[in-house]
Amino acid sequence: MSNFIQIALKQAQQEVEAALQQIIAAPAEPDLLWQAMAYSVLGGGKRIRPLLCLFSSEAVGGSRQQAMPAACSVELIHTYSLIHDDLPALDNDDWRRGRPSNHREHGEAMAILAGDALVALAFDLLATQPETDPAIQVKVIAELSRAAGPAGMCAGQVLDMQGEQAVQTLEQILTVYRLKTGALIRAAVRMGAMLGGANQSQLAALTLYAEALGQAFQIVDDLLDLTGSLDTLGKTPGKDLIQQKRTYPALMGMDAAQAKVQEDLDAALNALTEAGVATEPLVALAHLLVDRTA
Hints:
The chain is an all-alpha fold. It has one domain (9-291): Farnesyl Diphosphate Synthase (Orthogonal Bundle). 74% of the residues lie in helices and 1% in strands. It has 15 helices and 2 strands. It has helices spanning 3-24, 31-41, 48-59, 64-85, 102-106, 108-127, 134-148, 153-162, 170-196, 200-227, 230-233, 239-242, 248-252, 254-275, 280-291, and strands spanning 95-96, 99-100. A hairpin with a 2-residue loop joins strand 1 (95-96) and strand 2 (99-100).
């Protein structure tokens, strides 16, 4: 990756951080709730989803400023999902991003409420952008709600919790990936493209890019769960084995999983190239997602 693109990615990440600071750090009551929200939103993270949103908008001629509220709304939804996923009733993890999970720091009740509040705040953010065309605004809100709800991330979470009762075949594993992880990545890319004024062929290509990337992202996550450590991952490793979850590496083997990641990466980049939207940031993000070690 060139120094230029590294600087560009870092700059965009810093802009996302500044926007999230402005959204979350404003003084408000009750203070305990906002502290719990800020603990997770501002507590680190690669900001991959907001970056995908911003760069998808720019790839089709849109502006970063126009896409920033949507980018932040996706990150708020993602953060809520992490807070709730770590709860004892779900994935039961005491660590997130290298420090105690929200419920370990603020208690289960406050963690639940912080997650609930972040969902509402995300949609409030999308609905209060006077510069956005109302027709596009409605489409963007619908895109995120579908990705986060019972046809997307929540459905994937349920299937994941059911484990072997619901997930046995490779097709079922990939369905969990598409819903639990891929849906929000897909939404981030499509929201940015819509706000940037993408035509139908551009939107279709970016959708294919996002779907392939989302699948590769989760397979890499499963591989890292087998090979990583608490220090590198920032969360408890080896949980898939402990919970006897069926994953792509568990069913197909690590070599086949790594080959599938490369196949998905190639599919994602080919989709961008064929539509003429293979911008350096989108290509670089794809490589970062599959080459990561955390």
